[in-house]
Structure to design on (421 residues):
């Protein structure tokens, strides 16, 4: 790969993350909480990358490419440890400061399945890392000199049946960011020290005009609650490109990858917020890529795109969710807790960032969800619900309607009964 050592903006980027590692984290907080997100949630990887077909007994070798201060790496390594799953999380970042924070966080948690390597993604092939089952590259590609070249290099590190979790910035939901970036680049050029540029940014934000688009945008909060690192990364980053979903899908295609999931899938379905029958009939005729583009353009609040991908031709089908031997699994929120969020009429008020949409579910799903524990099969659920007077036929009708919706909200998955939880 081409070295970025002669790229002035890349050099400024390196200086930024050494001075202000991102995101701003205190290792002592690991004693109090585990940050959960996407991509790289273990249950998401099992489902959206491996289609619930990979045995949990097989070691998972994962690469976090550009780990920063370690959010995704710490989450994945902790999930593996808690589930007694074999595997290794390899963290690569060129910021020594950021790596030191991520390492300290891992030490607080006593993680022994994680290791850290200082190195640049623009020269990833020189690190001789070997192949991986899973690669996380979250919030990195949009800062690189040549995102496609790096993504192709990462694709080359994937095992044939492996996959990636990726996140890039999206333009519409970041309205206002690039306007302020443009002003700050003039007021405080990249050639100045990071501390000087940060001081200028703080002074601008103190008196930012009320008419500034950034003041109207509530889709992110790094400039408000992210500390110095958050403010710098949002408004002073020397290279920050946003991708529409159409551009992002093209980037993935050019890298030899295909999408298994846009998170959350329902977020990219414009029919959810366009209830008009004539509009929905038009939506149904569009490809899923076109539907995603419409959803992004009309909602206007997507600040990022999160996807899971595999090599072209490697996408697998998930287990049949109607198979009585399959096992439903809740991603994170327990079934009884999700049931409490569903109204008596079956409506789940769901938030896609700052957009709240009422999602219609069969109201009887409220009584089924509490029994989804990662062990009960569909057959078990049928037996349990029969004790409440719900016939097998009625259960199957409810489940057939409810599961695709819950799956599209990234709340409920399914696996074959031969796999342990």
């Amino acid at each position: 790969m081409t070295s970025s050592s002669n790229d002035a903006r890349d050099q400024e980027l390196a200086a930024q993350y050494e001075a202000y590692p991102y995101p701003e984290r205190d290792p002592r907080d690991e004693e109090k909480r585990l940050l959960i997100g996407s991509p790289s949630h273990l249950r998401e990887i099992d489902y959206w990358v491996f289609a619930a077909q990979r045995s949990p007994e097989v070691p998972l070798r994962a690469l976090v490419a550009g780990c920063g201060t370690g959010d995704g790496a710490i989450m994945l390594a902790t999930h593996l440890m808690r589930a007694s799953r074999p595997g290794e999380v390899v963290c690569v970042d060129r910021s020594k400061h950021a790596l030191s924070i991520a390492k300290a966080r891992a030490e607080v948690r006593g993680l022994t399945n994680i290791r850290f390597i200082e190195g640049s993604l623009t020269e990833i092939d020189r690190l001789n890392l070997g192949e991986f089952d899973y690669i996380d590259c979250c919030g990195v590609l949009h800062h690189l000199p040549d995102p496609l070249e790096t993504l192709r290099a990462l694709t080359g590190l994937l095992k044939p049946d492996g996959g990636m979790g990726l996140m890039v910035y999206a333009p519409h939901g970041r309205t206002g960011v690039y306007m302020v970036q443009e002003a700050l680049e003039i007021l405080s050029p990249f050639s100045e020290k990071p501390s000087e540029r940060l001081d200028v940014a703080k002074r601008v934000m103190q008196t930012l005009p009320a008419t500034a688009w950034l003041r109207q945008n509530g889709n992110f909060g790094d400039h408000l609650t992210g500390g110095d690192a958050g403010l710098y990364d949002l408004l002073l980053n020397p290279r920050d490109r946003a991708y529409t979903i159409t551009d992002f899908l093209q980037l993935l295609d050019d890298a030899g990858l295909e999408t298994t999931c846009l998170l959350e899938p329902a977020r990219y379905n414009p029919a959810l917020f366009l209830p008009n029958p004539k509009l929905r009939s038009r939506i149904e005729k569009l490809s899923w890529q076109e539907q995603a583009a419409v959803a992004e353009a009309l909602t206007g609040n997507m600040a990022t795109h999160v996807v899971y991908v595999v090599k072209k031709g490697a996408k697998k089908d998930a287990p049949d969710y109607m198979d009585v031997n399959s096992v439903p699994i809740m991603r994170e929120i327990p079934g009884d807790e999700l049931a409490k969020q569903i109204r008596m009429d079956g409506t789940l008020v769901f938030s896609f960032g700052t957009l709240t949409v009422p999602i219609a579910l069969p109201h009887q799903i409220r009584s089924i969800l509490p029994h989804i524990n990662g062990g009960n099969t569909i057959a078990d659920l049928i037996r349990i619900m029969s004790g409440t007077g719900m016939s097998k036929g009625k259960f199957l009708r409810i489940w057939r309607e409810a599961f695709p919706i819950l799956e599209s909200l990234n709340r409920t998955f399914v696996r074959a009964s031969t796999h342990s939880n």
